[in-house]
Structure formats: structure tokens, C-alpha cells
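cron nightly-structures :: item 1 of 1
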Amino acid sequence: MSADRLVQMANDIGHFFAAEPQRADAVAGIASHIQRFWDPRMRRQIAAHLAAGGAGLEDLAREAIASLKPL
């Protein structure tokens, strides 16, 4: 899957969880969703994208991806 598509998906998940009143809950919700529903290859690819600068990732998605356990 392309990095652009993964970024779009992560940002879309972030938009959903942005309604959480506490930022920490939003970040945890995004990270949990990615951990549960994304294939390990997708998680490795988005983590590598973040490590390379994370172009296009919005703040909540960026923070959630950074909190994921390394594979």
C-alpha cells in the first residue's frame, strides 16, 4: 500500500477520534485502532514514514503512530 494512502487512512482515523474531550484518549484510540486493525506490514510502513519525517500526517495521527510498539 502506498505511504500516501496510509497517511490518509491514519488522518481519517484521527478525525474520528478528534471528538474525544481528552487529547490522550484520542491518541490512545487512534493507536488502538491501528494496532488492532492494520496489518503488521502497514504498521511498519507508517512507522517508517513517520521516522522519515511523516509528511502529511496530522498531529494526532503522528502522536499515535509514535506511541505504537515497534514490530
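cron nightly-structures :: done
The chain has a mean pLDDT of 96.
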